[in-house]
Amino acid sequence: MSLASCPVRAVVRLRRQIRNLKKSKLHLDLSGPRSLETRHARLLQKQISLDKTSFFNTGLEKSQYFSFDTPSLEQMSQLSVLKPKRKKKRRRSRTVLYPGNSRKYLPIEQKSKAKRCLILLIAIIFFQILNAIENLDDNLQKYDVDGLEKTMHRDIFGQKLAVDTVMDLLKDYLATHMHNKPLVVSLNGPSGVGKSHMGRLLAKHFRSVMDGDFVLQYYAGHNCPTETDVLSCQSDLSGKVSNMVVTAEIEEKIPVLIFDEMEEMPLLLLDVLHGYFQPNQSNEFLNAIYILISNIGSNGITKYVLQNASSEDLSQHRKRKELVSIIESSLRQHHPLWDHSEIVPFILLEKSHIINCFLDEMLREGYYPDNGNIENMASQLKYYTQGERHYSIMGCKQVVAKVNLLQ
Ligand SMILES: Nc1ncnc2c1ncn2[C@@H]1O[C@H](COP(=O)(O)OP(=O)(O)OP(=O)(O)O)[C@@H](O)[C@H]1O
Asked: What sections of the protein cross the membrane (predicted)?
């Protein structure tokens, strides 16, 4: 029995094992795809680890002995796949992080003395500039330059260029009291265009804003007629000019000296004036304004105006430049004193300006300004005709005489 039971037990055991196997297989199928995946992954891992060991084993097999042989490219690529990648080193940030709840103490700044001095210097310069600007305005207000400008534009007809030029020169000069040379302005142009008229307006204005002692009106033909001894004229002129500039300097005023009919002035007097215009003199002679009125170079101006009668678009600046260049040579030929002067050309007056002169004069004399009457009187004067333009040959010179005939 015992002999017969051995093979039977073996058969039973085998059957049990087969059943168990079947059961386990069934269990595996029921546990789902996830377990399958993990199993699969485990199997793969196993496979990889086997590959690794086999590779290193083969590598070790090959390199039982140390050598300097460089590995082949293939080996290198395999190694690089297997090697874990090195982490990149992080750069340290440079900013210093302070804990939020604590105060940070910065290094104490050392105060530079040079920096302080520089700031002080800048402040001083700034205040000085402000002060200077205020002073400039004060000076211009002292001489009421704006008032003068208004009067000139209102009372002088057809000479905008001349008025603007004179006003610019006066504004520049009167802004300060310290000068390195006197201001010499030469008014030039044909007869009756308003040169002496401007001279008179200037004298009147400066007499009203300063003491009358600081304005001189000198008419060469009247103050030093041909029959008088020129030497006495010379001492008279020198005395007048010296006295005026000295007293003006004491009172910090700028005297205005107006010389009319310069074309009639004797050479000796021209030389005296020339001496006053030099820059290398004592201060009182440097702070003075000289106005020289003459008709020297007037023929050149008349010719220029008539030739350019049609050119409306000529700029003021260009006009002045061209006119100055025309009369400059005539003036310098007359006497070198004009080398030191600012030349202001006066141009011919048109018929419309002559009508304004009549209107002005009639109102001044108390006449009713009848347009017909004015037109009639204006037509009696002589004109240069260029196209549609009529330029008065004698300017407004005969206006006073014509109005006087109305009585
Ligand atoms: N542009 C002008 N605007 C207003 N009035 C003028 C003008 N020009 C001349 N007059 C009048 O004509 C008169 C004579 O002019 P003014 O004495 O100024 O001539 P001038 O240019 O000095 O000429 P001259 O060289 O012959 O002396 C003046 O008293 C003035 O009333």
From this structure: none
